[in-house]
Amino acid sequence: ASIARYFPALQGAAEPAAALLQEVALRTARLMAQWQAVGFCHGVMNTDNMSLLGLTIDYGPFGFLDGFDPGHICNHSDDQGRYAYARQPGVAFWNLHALAQALLPVVDGPPAAASELLLAALEPYKSEYAGAMLGALRAKLGLRSAHDADQALIDDWLQLMAADRADFTIAFRRLATFDSRPGADNAPI
Questions:
Q1: Do the beta carbons of residue 19 and residue 4 sit within 8 Å?
Q2: CA 14 distance to own-chain centroid
Q3: Which one, out of 56, 93, 133, 165, has a CA that is 20 to 30 A from the CA of 64?
């Protein structure tokens, strides 16, 4: 029913359940990149708080990062930090694995082959998330064209922010005032 209503283009797929899982994985990867890029912390990413459509639902005790701390936990009942900011993309991937398990009974063929097919449908999540996150952070940093060194620059920037617990939003905003003229005073940045 979900395919017919929300993903009609997948109805003709050779294996609709695998096609659905892959589409959900791609949407979820893009959603996680959006969350991470703006410093959004969900707080309770249980499987029932995820959407096939790649939407944010059931916010629970959510929050946004202030001082950048990749280990930030916005849900005070999350004693283990399962849903900490830096863990969100991995938790989403784990939740997709749970969806794959739920879809196993509707995939034709032997269980081992069905499992392999569904696991393969999940693989694009990794590259989709990485690409979407890189694109979002390139945009936030004002990088107009892609370069091989962009990821290293982004990693260095995030490490500096974490070391100083810089405000996640304000630090990016202040970069907009950077003056590239020779001798310009960029000390506040």
A1: no
A2: 28
A3: 93
Question: In this predicted model, what pLDDT tens digit does every residue of 149-159 receive, in sequence order?
Answer: 999 999 999 99
Give the pairing of strands 40-41 and 63-64.
antiparallel
- Residues 48-58: pLDDT tens digits? 889 999 988 87
Cα gap 38→131, rounded to integer Å: 16
Known catalytic membership, residue 185 = no
In this structure, are residues 133 and 33 in contact, taking their beta carbons and an 8 Å threshold?
yes
Whole-structure pTM value = 0.92
Catalytic annotation, pick one of 48, 155, 156, 179? 48
Cβ-count burial of 135 within 10 angstroms (0-12 exposed, 13-18 middle, 19+ buried)?
A: middle
**70 contacts: CB under 8 Å, gap ≥ 6:** 84, 85, 86, 158, 162
For the segment 67-76, what is each residue's pLDDT rounded down to a tens digit?
999 999 999 8
